Amino acid sequence: MGTITNPYSPANTMMYSVPVTVGDYAADADHDGRVGFRIASGNCAVGGGWRFTEVHRFATSTTHTFTLYNFKPGQTYQYRAEVGPVGSANSTCGTLGTPSLPTDLGYLDLDYDGSGGLATDFVLVDTTDCGSSTQREYIIAVDANGQFISWYLDIAAIAGSGGNSLGGWRFQKGTGPTADRFLGILDRRYLYEWDWTGATRNVRDFGDVCASAAGDDGPCIHHDAFKLAATGTSYVLTSAISSEDPAGTGWDGVCNASDRFVNDGFDELDTSLSTTDSPDAMTDWGYDPDTDGGENEGESRACNSGYWDPYFVTRPLDWMHPNSVSAHKPGSDVLVDLSFKEWNQVIRVNASTNAVVWRMANGSTWSTLTLAINGGITGSAGFAGQHMVHDIDGFVQMFDNEGGPSGTSRVLRWQLSGGPPVTTATIVKSWELVNAGLGALVCPGQGSGVTVLGTSGNSVLALCNAERLVEELSDYDGDTSAEPPLIIQLATDPCTSAGGPDEHSEIRGWYRAFPVEQIGPF
């Protein structure tokens, strides 16, 4: 055994690195090694309750370092290293340590509720801490059954190339725990790919073109990125100032004459994150504010874009506001799905030709698809202000922010049919968001709805940003009478420390949440 260390501080102090050295190496079971840990309970050489890493065979080297994850803060643990066939291995053991959260993150007060019987093991969510003067940003993992934070990434600490403000992020599961990835967009400039240890697998600096200085008209990256495992290609949302002003459009007289429309699209990136293509709405997909401004044309909020005003010198007219991008490869073609919030519209684009495959929206004016809903599902066949649109096993899934009854929020799964080309999108599952008292929730901004693996597509993990709430939902007929199996919500007074924020709305983040079965290799 070498020296057990925690090399991940300050990015993560909830992991331990355990190096193991053997006398020689060979490709046989006698040279299989693993390391386990458990809560300290007397003699670590005996007894059970161990959680072991995957087996590593010392076939070409006498040394290997095992990384241990998923601890309860403040609890002392033991380790046990074994080499040889399981059941008859040689072993050594000792005290591992007592992991802890950063002080201000440890003050964060989470309330837990629900009916139990969870399908979700761990919840990943972005949040800030309870700092009284400066709040740090984190991605945390909450042990849903144990009800504690078991892992975290300190965003500023792992952003080695620059950036400290998380404008968008995504967790993507790989074919094994070590292939899992986190994508993070920082300062509308940097695109990162991290692993569970916080190590940077890849990073791209898109340049200082969104700092509200002379000439800063983009394109800026923002909101969302997606890496397609089948090709290694990544997609990231981009926005830039166009030459189009509001004169002669539905915003004429509503917005300033000097405003310019934002031209939205995405960058297609190869495995080194170099740009290979940059299609956009106004040039490639036929969006022209002179002829059609969408369902919310003329809304003054597009002129006063709180999202873009601090970043562009030219005042932006945020008329489309894309908020999610995802991709899948059902055959020979890669298909990219984009959500345009201000149009209440989703489009699917062929990544090879940049042609629009279909448009999905309320009413025939902005949709090539007819919207329908299966019998027995409560609600309407429509959506509004949607986020987190993605393909799941051939279905289209979204977080419908305001399309439910009385503008409430739900997670929808759509089945595409007809054609080819596709002619109809039908709601086949609808999960209505509710609070602990079964009151329907209104979540007008941000949010996500992700399928919980191992539930045959019947359960989702949903996030309501307005309520700083994450919940598992298993009732998919649109009803609101069933208590969710899990609700995790920031407390009304979210910080247990004097001087920290005293309103949960002052804790930033809570943009997306993802369910995971295990933290790292556990």
Describe this structure in words.
This protein is an all-beta fold. 2% of the residues lie in helices and 41% in strands. The protein has helices at residues 103-106, 155-158, 281-284, and strands at 16-21, 32-39, 51-52, 56-57, 63-68, 77-83, 90-97, 108-113, 122-128, 137-143, 148-154, 166-172, 181-186, 190-194, 200-205, 220-228, 233-241, 260-269, 275-277, 316-317, 322-328, 335-340, 345-350, 356-361, 370-373, 387-392, 395-400, 410-417, 424-432, 448-451, 460-464, 469-473, 486-495, 509-516. Strands 2, 3, 4, 6 and 7 form a 5-stranded antiparallel sheet that branches. A 5-stranded antiparallel sheet has the order 8-33-32-31-30.
Topology readout:
Blueprint: E1 16-21, E2 32-39, E3 51-52, E4 56-57, E5 63-68, E6 77-83, E7 90-97, H1 103-106, E8 108-113, E9 122-128, E10 137-143, E11 148-154, H2 155-158, E12 166-172, E13 181-186, E14 190-194, E15 200-205, E16 220-228, E17 233-241, E18 260-269, E19 275-277, H3 281-284, E20 316-317, E21 322-328, E22 335-340, E23 345-350, E24 356-361, E25 370-373, E26 387-392, E27 395-400, E28 410-417, E29 424-432, E30 448-451, E31 460-464, E32 469-473, E33 486-495, E34 509-516
Parallel strand pairs: 18-20, 25-29
Antiparallel strand pairs: 1-5, 2-3, 2-4, 2-6, 6-7, 8-33, 9-10, 9-34, 10-11, 12-13, 13-14, 14-15, 16-17, 17-18, 18-19, 21-22, 22-23, 23-24, 26-27, 27-28, 28-29, 30-31, 31-32, 32-33
